[in-house]
User: Which sequence fits this backbone?
């Protein structure tokens, strides 16, 4: 093959890099949570009391807020994963990858706003004591 | 800003037997996409039911779990989700270790730790789903 001068641009700095970084960070975070989650669920084999005691921590305000973070991380990883699949397998995927990035950002926000409301409503009511 | 150029990749060495190379990385790449697609439905469905629907996490306790695992449908859902999520996550972590751990020894031992702990979690989770007893205690 004849010698060719490589032409191309580095991936660094654009949306492509940041979606990739976020995909890794959210993936690792969700993976570590999965370990903890299998262990806490395994307490159903110990006793109902042990399970209920540990699950009670999931209902506290700070952990409740972390759950919103977990759902946000999983949702981003899922949406961006679908985008990666489309870039890989859809013939027009690479051409529309940037539009797909902004689409998943919009979908993420549209789901997270009501999602956060329903996940936090009990905690907010318990903390700031409106009508039960 | 001008685009920086990238060096040409190393040219294939003469006489290298391509037939001896395994397709493991290809199958692993494909597995990430197939399992990912299935997990989108399994995990987002799980999060919606557990964290948002009908009071969310506040209503979860032993009796709630017992009610769900009385159904083979939710047992199968959770079992498939456990296996796919753990294999998908373990394969992702394997990629990250390969990318960032530079010393051969470090890479090897980090991956051993990953595989042993992942196998433990998969087996523990499977055992819990199959041996769950609602009348325990």
Assistant:
């Amino acid at each position: 093959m004849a010698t060719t001068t490589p032409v191309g641009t580095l991936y660094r700095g654009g949306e492509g890099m940041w979606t990739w970084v976020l995909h890794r960070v959210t993936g690792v975070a969700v993976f570590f949570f999965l370990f903890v989650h299998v262990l806490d669920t395994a307490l159903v084999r110990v006793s109902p009391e042990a399970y209920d005691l540990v699950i009670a921590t999931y209902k506290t305000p700070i952990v409740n807020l972390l759950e919103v973070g977990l759902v946000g991380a999983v949702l981003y990883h899922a949406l961006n994963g679908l985008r990666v699949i489309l870039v890989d397998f859809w013939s027009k995927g690479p051409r529309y990858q940037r539009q797909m990035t902004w689409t998943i950002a919009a979908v993420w926000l549209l789901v997270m706003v009501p999602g956060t409301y329903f996940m936090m409503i009990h905690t907010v009511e318990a903390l700031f004591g409106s009508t039960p | 800003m001008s685009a920086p150029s990238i060096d040409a990749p190393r040219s294939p060495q003469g006489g290298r037997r391509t037939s001896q190379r395994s397709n493991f990385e290809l199958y692993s790449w494909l597995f990430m996409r197939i399992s990912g697609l299935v997990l989108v439905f399994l995990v987002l469905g799980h999060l919606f039911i557990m964290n948002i629907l009908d009071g969310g996490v506040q209503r979860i306790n032993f009796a709630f779990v017992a009610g769900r695992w009385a159904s083979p449908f939710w047992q199968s859902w959770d079992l498939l989700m456990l296996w796919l999520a753990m294999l998908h996550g373990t394969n992702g972590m394997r990629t990250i270790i390969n990318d960032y751990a530079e010393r051969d020894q470090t890479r090897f031992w980090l991956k051993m730790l990953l595989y042993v702990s992942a196998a433990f979690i998969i087996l523990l989770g499977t055992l819990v789903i199959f041996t769950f007893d609602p009348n325990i205690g």
In short: DSSP finds four helices and no strands in chain B. The domain at 26-131 of chain B is CATH 1.20.1300.10 (3 helical TM bundles of succinate and fumarate reductases). Residues 92 and 131 of chain B are 29 Å apart (CA to CA). The radius of gyration of chain B is 21 Å.
